Amino acid sequence: MFYHVKELQYNAKPTQPDPVYAKKLQEILGGQYGEMSVMMQYLFQGWNCRGDEKYRDMILDIGTEEIAHVEMIATMIAQLLDGAPAGDQDHAAADPAVQAVLGGMNPQHAIVSGLGAKPEDSVGYPWTSRYTIASGNLLADFRANLNAESQGRLQVVRLYEMTTDPGVRDMLQFLIARDTMHQNQWMAAIEELERTQGAVVPSTFNQEFEKQEVSYTFMNFSQGEESKEGSWAHGPSYDGQANFEYNADPKPMGQIPHLQPAPPYIHGTLPTDMQIMAGAGKMEPNQLQQ
Questions:
Q1: Would you say 66 is a known binding-site residue?
Q2: Which of 2, 35, 102, 104 could hold 69 in an S-S bridge, CB 3.0 to 4.6 Å?
């Protein structure tokens, strides 16, 4: 059960309207790494969790908090649009560079949503559930969560640098701080799971069934060998099961692929010898069917 409390988790009060910035702020609402994405990702991970109850409870704690962040940002966007009819976009984007890049305010904020936030990113691409990951493997999911919080915090910090509005910055400072906590939270949970399950996902697959001769070999597939200086190319592997090896000149290990001609109904291109025979009228129809 969810219960809505009327007060926001934290203040979302801009000092003055700014329809162009409202357009930018849509990215951390409905973008790939926005609050809607982490909200849905965490909630579905929690609802689908079949393991330790402490993980389920933790995931749902943070997923529910993200609902509050969606509400805060939506509220901020609506207030940034206060008193900003569509005609104001020319004034807001008076700078030619800004006008060229942003084109002023998002006209759909006035036409479609009535000066309110929309479930989409800063260029109008609608939010999609394909942004979310809920695989049922907690270690894999928590690593995806860490990436989401890392990208999300990066974007909020960039947005912080794009405004001088004290009210907007105040809200973003709160969100940045929560993203600091959430990154640390997922790192702590990842470390805990790695201690009990191992570092490679999934840990339940027997490594005897993989090609172990290449399990810990870093292959040099680009010009230069600077990458061999990294810890991923020598020394103990992160999972503690082997030592990394460096292959400076990896050779092909597979066959040269030869595909059969497509059947006639595909109307593909015949091999050269068959093209010549068909063009000279030397092939019977049944030969083309073979």
A1: yes
A2: 35
Same domain, 99 and 233: no
- Of the listed ranges 80-94, 151-165, 189-203, 211-225, the one predicted with least confidence: 80-94
Residue 26 in this model has a pLDDT that exceeds 50: yes
Q: How many domains does the chain have?
A: 2
Q: What CATH number does residue 144 fall under?
A: 1.20.1260.10
pLDDT, mean of residues 129-139: 97
Determine, yes or no, domain membership for 10: no
Is there a binding annotation on residue 61? Answer: yes
Flag whether 6 is in a domain. no
Is 226 labelled as part of a ligand binding site? no
- 243 labelled as ligand-binding? no
Average pLDDT over residues 162-171: 98
- Give the domain range for residue 211: 207-247
Residue 99, pLDDT above cutoff 80: no
- Is 57 annotated as a binding-site member? yes
* Phi and psi angles of residue 202, each rounded to the nearest 5 degrees, phi first: -85, 150
4 is in an annotated binding site: no
Same domain, 91 and 224: no
**pLDDT (tens digit per residue) in 240-260:** 999 999 999 999 999 999 988
35 known member of a binding site: yes
Residue 245 annotated in ligand binding:
no
**pLDDT winner (highest mean) among 88-92, 177-181, 272-276:** 177-181
Average confidence (pLDDT) over 268-285: 65
